[in-house]
UniProtKB/TrEMBL annotation:
The lineage of its organism: Bacteria, Pseudomonadati, Pseudomonadota, Alphaproteobacteria, Rhodobacterales. This is Telomere resolvase ResT/TelK catalytic domain-containing protein. Residues 211-409 form the Telomere resolvase ResT/TelK catalytic domain. InterPro entries: ResT/TelK_cat, ResT/TelK_cat_sf.
């Protein structure tokens, strides 16, 4: 909290005097670092209160002023004063807040999450009287660093900080009970940002609800995709595989792999191959959210006999085109192959005949269509659509936004009202959850942010875009 009588130059002088007086005592490094965080937080709050940007040139000059004044006072000490030895070590103790650094020089987000969560745990375990003030100062610095991002990204970042803290506290047995609630009073969502993001999101989804597309000929389309599985054209086989498995373009070409699901009866030990189920591994990770099943094998229903799908996949991967595609990264695949495959899909006479006129069609649409058909054909009667979509598409069951993003179609005109009701229920659940906890899956990260997250890879090490098909 910014003191009412705060004055920058007075704060600079006071900080310099604090450094001089403290540097003579053991453990000065921790006390100076603690004071530095508070001073930087006050400076950011001061700049913001004046209507300026926290990281502008004026603020940066003030940061230099804090450092220079402290160094000057130390240099004025007598030559034999042991405190002069602090000068060489001082700058390393006074780290420039990220909001004042160039984007290319900033710490990757995953590292920031880890360091902040560990520091929060350290503060609550140590339990000093003013630990919440220290945490608040550190959070002001983190918030300032993300303040230039879109509001959706800011909301996403805050959710990820909270999730990182929660996971760190669960791992650390020394964290006292109830500490998480206290920390979350500081590391919390900003009502103004959350409201703005939810309003924008609600507008988008309401438009989506109004624009649900009726795919009356879905059974015939499934038959066409089944036929593609035995085509001599690898591009049509690729389309067929995406259509009957719902896997992404990149997953079928590069990162994914299928195997037959074999069930063994416990008593007789007789094994049976599942006709409509395959095992899948290699889910890609997309920008803005972790692929929750990216390193796991899980079952998926198929809209064609599993053996036919498996054989088509093996044929494709062993074809000259398939071998070439499998060596490409995400960007190369999109640049060199994606448009070609979309043209094949849209220009095929059977697809043209069956797909609704004027309705957008790309290979990405096949994933939404697959999910809708699989739900109608395979889902248990008591299972809601959102968790079923999550299960077969490899997402978290709590990721309501992703489930909504795939609800593009209805298969029968009589299903439209039920589909709209399902989507509205999901919207309400999303808003209620966000209001209480925030949504760690909402929003897409900027490309620059994503490239700084070293852990987000897909198959060949590439992160694929949400728009990749």
């Amino acid at each position: 909290m910014l003191p009412k009588d705060y004055a920058v130059y007075g704060a600079i002088d006071a900080f310099a005097e604090f450094v001089v007086s403290t540097s003579a005592k053991p453990g000065w490094q921790g006390r100076v670092a603690q004071r530095w965080d508070r001073e930087m937080a006050h400076l950011i709050e001061y700049q913001t209160s004046k209507g300026g940007f926290a990281g502008d040139r004026t603020a940066l000059n003030y940061v230099y002023g804090f450092r220079t004044k402290a160094r000057d006072l130390l240099e004025e000490l007598p030559s034999g004063d042991p405190r002069r030895k602090v000068i060489d070590d001082l700058d390393s103790r006074l780290a420039t807040p990220q909001v004042f650094t160039k984007a290319d020089d900033r710490i990757p987000l995953n590292q920031s999450l880890k360091e902040f969560a560990e520091e929060a745990a350290r503060l609550v375990i140590r339990g000093w009287k003013n630990w919440l003030d220290d945490l608040d100062a550190k959070w002001v610095l983190e918030r300032a660093a993300m303040s230039t991002k879109a509001e959706t990204t800011q909301k996403n970042y805050i959710s990820r900080y909270r999730k990182a803290i929660e996971e760190e506290f669960e791992r650390n047995e020394d964290v006292p009970e109830g500490a998480l609630d206290e920390v979350f009073k500081v590391v919390k969502h900003i009502p103004k940002v959350t409201k703005s993001v939810n309003n924008d999101y609600g507008t988008t989804v309401r438009k989506q609800v109004r624009n649900l597309q009726l795919i009356e000929n879905w059974k015939e389309l499934v038959e066409v995709f089944n036929g593609f599985l035995v085509s001599d054209n690898p591009r049509l086989r690729l389309i067929g595989l995406m259509g009957v498995t719902g896997r992404r373009f990149f997953e079928v070409c590069v990162s994914g792999d299928f195997s037959l699901e074999i069930f063994e009866y416990p008593e007789s030990h007789v094994t049976v191959k599942q006709k409509w189920v395959l095992r899948f591994i290699g889910q890609a990770k997309t920008k803005g959210r972790e692929g929750t099943m990216s390193e796991e094998t899980y079952n998926i229903p198929c809209l064609a006999p599993a053996k036919d799908v498996y054989n088509a996949f093996q044929w494709l991967r062993n074809s000259p085109e398939g071998e070439a595609w499998s060596q490409m990264n995400s960007r190369e695949l999109n640049a060199r192959v994606n448009n070609q495959i979309n043209r094949y899909l849209r220009s095929h006479e059977d697809v043209q005949r069956l797909w609704p006129k004027g309705v957008k069609l790309t290979t990405k649409c096949l994933r939404s269509l697959y999910a809708e058909i699989a739900y109608k054909v395979f889902a248990p009667g008591t299972m809601a659509k959102a968790p079923y979509f999550a299960q077969i598409l490899g997402h978290s069951v709590e990721d309501l936004n992703t489930a909504l993003s795939y609800m593009d179609y209805v298969l029968d005109s009589s299903d439209e009202e039920a589909a709209r009701n399902d989507m509205q229920a999901l919207i309400d659940a999303t808003n209620e959850r966000d209001a209480a906890y925030g949504n760690p899956w909402s929003g897409n990260l900027d490309e620059d942010d994503d490239l700084k997250m070293a852990a987000k890879v897909a198959g060949d090490g590439m992160v694929i875009d949400d728009d990749d098909t």
